[in-house]
């Protein structure tokens, strides 16, 4: 492999990591605060894709603006879903079967609502940007992937900043670290959970809208991404936004570069093999391992 | 004494149960049960995906089947000699949601509890393979309208039939077409091929067809890269990088519709170019052309049928189908399904009974002389699969599609090599 090939692959992997990070971060914050494995995440992503599509088709609104609009819209939608369904779930500091079943059922409902409204046709968003390629000498980069990457990075950084600087972020982190102690100090866990679910849903919708620019989609959209999101959040240590970014980068690098040495058909086996290894060797994720290593004595 | 009942304690489980029930009701395959075969109608089971990743081709196949059934019923039904009357065809439809396990169990249901005289369906190789095991178990004729992999027809099943020619033939026809371009001087001899094949029997058969042709025609092409890829992968950049590194002149992939769109988008975004480019049986689909605009121009595909075939029956079918559905046939999907129903009707009429084994025997001898498929005649081979030729179509600018091979069916010249994008 030449240096140019290597660089092209590295760029492809980093851009892919951006996509992976934005689609996983919503799932992580929801798991962190509420210990809910949000299987409906793929459904929210699918709705996000259609959200951008409808704005684009009906009002000719740029899908990037559509993706930005998806953030507040899905935030409110997520809060409504929380108020309607999630708040009735029994509270636990471990994932429960009832939450898993509820979210799975909700995903199926969303999927079927998708079929009801949009049918089974594959839709896609085609803009002049879709096939634009930036060429820097022998290196070519898809403009759209670059835009999606920067949008994803911007959002993940904004979330990280909000979590570390705002009162809400501190309350949320407190709930992740020790829910009982957080409640004693006056953190309203119900309110924080509602906001968190809204935030997680907003990120899922945003990710779906961004992905709609890159892929064709149908109401079944999101399934392969959901499985990868699992791998990423486990790699990242389940509860940390920076861990998600790290997990996304690891998965994207492994998936992209492993293909050079093993047939592409074994790509899923590599990803899930990585998941098994991490679960067995570093149950708190690679992020947790590094955190332990770098923690001051 | 105050009751210890708390609404909050009970509500979650109630809510979850309610949700599961609702979702089950919605998720259960939309079915159109025809009830038992009471003797006043011929029940035909149809199991196809109209939701899930194969939903769109499945929908088109369903439309082809329903058009044929409507035409048969409008003409009074199928003459059954031992009942001395014409019986209408009653369709029992199940949506398998593109799920293999569900697909097999729904075929089982159609064959057992619905007592269907025959079952049609099985779009895509994976779903067709799952369904194929049921036919001999229930001794009910099963005709796949959308699965072509040789594995389905190599088990020696006695009740299995298929209206798609083998995928190996697709591979060899593709290579034959490229060979004809070499003979015409449009391409040079000794060009290098890169193959990217989906990780299914379909992909394997396609690759084998190409490799067999190359072995039989030495000097035309050499394969410098051949690899399988994951069906439904969200990213093909690593695979495409390997293809790029192979420095091939021609890139032949075998992919389903969604993978074709994703891979071709990434192919274009990474600035790749090959003298000829194909995604197997995918190419002219309107979804792909809408998703990629002129990015699909000059892609060629080997397909089982084209609406441009110069036969009067094809023209009539296109007219009837458009009237029936309100849209043009998109690629080959409805035609093979339509012919499957007509072949079944002809077999029932020839058998003169609704006895399933007699119908199976009649299907073996059916010869549909006004078939829509290339060649104009359809006949099941000894393994139950038809072997009609493929037509090669090529996308042209402004959403045009031409049949470019074989010569006697061509509606336009093949453009080779593909012009480079400016």
What are the key terms here?
heterodimer; A: 297 residues; ABC transporter involved in vitamin B12 uptake, BtuC; two-stranded antiparallel sheet; B: 422 residues; alpha/beta; 2 domains; 6-stranded mixed sheet; 4-stranded parallel sheet; 12 helices; globular; disordered N terminus
Helix content of chain B: 40-55%
Q: How many distinct domains of chain A?
A: 1
Q: Describe the largest sheet of chain B.
A: 6 strands, mixed
| Quaternary organisation of the protein chains | heterodimer
Number of helices of chain B: 12
Quick one: CATH class of chain A? Mainly Alpha
Q: Secondary-structure map with pairings?
A:
The complex is a heterodimer of chains A (297) and B (422).
Chain A: H1 3-34, H2 41-59, H3 63-84, H4 97-118, E1 133-136, E2 139-142, H5 143-165, H6 167-177, H7 179-184, H8 189-211, H9 223-236, H10 241-258, H11 267-281, H12 285-294
Chain B: H1 7-27, E1 31-32, E2 42-48, H2 55-74, E3 78-80, E4 85-87, E5 89-95, H3 100-111, E6 118-123, H4 125-137, E7 142-146, E8 160-162, H5 167-183, E9 191-198, H6 201-216, E10 221-229, H7 237-245, E11 250-254, H8 257-269, E12 276-278, H9 286-292, E13 300-303, H10 312-325, H11 333-351, H12 356-365, E14 367-368, E15 378-379, E16 391-396, E17 400-405
Helix pairs in contact in B: 2-11, 3-4, 5-6, 8-9, 11-12
Explain how this protein is built.
The complex is a heterodimer of chains A (297) and B (422). Chain A is 72% helix and 3% strand. Chain A has 297 residues and is an all-alpha fold. Chain A has one domain (3-294): ABC transporter involved in vitamin B12 uptake, BtuC (Orthogonal Bundle). Chain A has a two-stranded antiparallel ribbon. The longest helix of chain A has 32 residues, at 3-34. Chain A is globular and about 60 Å long. With 422 residues, chain B is of the alpha/beta class. Chain B is built from 12 helices and 17 strands. In chain B, the strands form 5 sheets. Chain B has a 6-stranded mixed beta sheet with strand order 1-5-2-6-7-8, with helices on both faces. In chain B, strands 10-9-11-12 form a 4-stranded parallel beta sheet. The model of chain B is unreliable at 1-8 and 25-37 (pLDDT under 50). Chains A and B meet through helix 1, helix 4, helix 9 and helix 10 of A and helix 1, helix 2, strand 10, helix 7 and helix 8 of B.
């Amino acid at each position: 492999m030449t240096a140019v090939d290597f660089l092209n692959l590295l760029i492809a992997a980093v851009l892919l990591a951006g996509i992976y990070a934005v689609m996983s971060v919503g799932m992580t914050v929801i798991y962190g605060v509420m210990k809910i494995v949000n299987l409906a995440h793929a459904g929210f992503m699918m709705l996000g894709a259609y959200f951008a599509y409808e704005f684009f088709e009906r009002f000719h609104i740029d899908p990037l603006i559509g993706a930005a609009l998806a953030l507040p819209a899905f935030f409110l939608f997520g809060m409504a879903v929380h108020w309607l369904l999630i708040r009735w779930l029994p509270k636990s500091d471990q994932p429960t079967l009832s939450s898993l079943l509820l979210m799975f059922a909700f995903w199926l409902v969303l999927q079927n609502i998708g079929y009801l409204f949009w049918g089974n046709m594959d839709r896609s968003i085609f803009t002049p940007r879709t096939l634009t390629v930036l060429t820097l000498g022998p290196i070519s980069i898809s403009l759209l992937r670059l835009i999606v990457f920067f949008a994803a990075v911007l959002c993940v950084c904004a979330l990280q900043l909000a979590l570390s600087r705002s009162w809400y972020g501190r309350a949320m982190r407190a709930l992740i670290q020790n829910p009982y102690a957080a409640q004693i100090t006056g953190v309203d866990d119900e309110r924080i959970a509602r906001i968190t679910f809204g935030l997680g849903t907003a990120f899922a919708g945003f990710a779906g809208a961004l992905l709609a620019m890159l892929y064709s989609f149908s109401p079944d959209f999101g399934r392969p991404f959901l499985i990868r999101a699992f791998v990423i959040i486990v790699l990242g240590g389940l509860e940390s936004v920076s861990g998600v970014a790290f997990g996304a980068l690891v998965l994207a690098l492994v998936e992209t570069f492993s293909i050079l040495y093993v047939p592409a058909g074994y790509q899923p086996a590599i990803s899930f093999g990585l998941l098994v290894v991490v679960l067995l060797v570093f149950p708190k994720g690679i992020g947790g391992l590094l955190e332990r290593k770098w923690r001051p004595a | 004494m105050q009751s210890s009942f708390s609404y909050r304690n009970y509500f979650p489980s109630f809510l979850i149960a309610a949700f599961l029930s609702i979702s089950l009701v919605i998720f259960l395959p939309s079915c159109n049960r025809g009830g038992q075969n009471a003797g006043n109608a011929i029940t035909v089971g149809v199991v196809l995906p109209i939701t899930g990743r194969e939903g769109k081709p499945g929908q088109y196949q369903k439309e082809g089947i329903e058009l044929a059934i409507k035409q048969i019923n409008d003409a009074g039904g199928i003459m059954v000699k031992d009942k001395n009357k014409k019986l209408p065809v009653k369709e029992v439809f199940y949506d398998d949601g593109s799920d293999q396990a569900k697909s097999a169990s729904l075929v089982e249901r159609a064959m057992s509890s619905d007592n269907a005289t025959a079952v049609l369906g099985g779009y895509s190789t994976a779903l067709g393979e799952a369904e194929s095991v049921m036919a001999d178990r229930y001794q009910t004729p099963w005709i796949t309208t959308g699965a072509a992999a040789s594995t389905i027809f190599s088990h020696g099943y006695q009740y299995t039939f298929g209206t798609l020619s083998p995928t190996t033939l697709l591979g060899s026809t593709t290579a034959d077409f490229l060979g004809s371009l070499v003979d015409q001087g449009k391409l040079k001899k000794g060009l290098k091929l890169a193959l990217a094949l989906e990780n299914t029997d379909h992909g394997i058969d396609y690759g084998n067809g190409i490799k067999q042709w190359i072995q039989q025609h030495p000097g035309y092409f050499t394969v410098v890269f051949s690899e399988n890829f994951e069906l439904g992968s969200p990213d093909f950049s690593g695979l495409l990088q390997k293809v790029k590194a192979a420095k091939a002149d021609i890139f032949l992939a075998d992919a389903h519709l969604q993978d074709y769109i994703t891979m071709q988008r990434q192919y274009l975004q990474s600035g790749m170019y090959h003298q000829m480019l194909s995604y197997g049986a995918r190419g002219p689909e309107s979804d792909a052309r809408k998703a990629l605009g002129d990015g699909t121009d000059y892609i060629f595909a080997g397909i089982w049928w084209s609406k441009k075939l110069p036969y009067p029956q094809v023209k009539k079918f296109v007219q009837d189908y458009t009237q029936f559905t309100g849209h043009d046939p998109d690629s080959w999907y409805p035609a093979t399904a339509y012919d499957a129903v007509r072949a079944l009707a002809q077999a029932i009429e020839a058998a003169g009974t609704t006895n399933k084994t007699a119908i199976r025997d009649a299907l073996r001898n059916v010869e549909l002389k006004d078939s829509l498929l290339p060649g104009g005649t359809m006949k099941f081979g000894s393994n139950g699969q038809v072997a009609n030729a493929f037509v090669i179509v090529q996308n042209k600018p402004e959403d045009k599609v031409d049949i470019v091979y074989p010569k006697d069916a061509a509606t336009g010249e093949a453009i080779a090599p593909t012009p480079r994008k400016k």
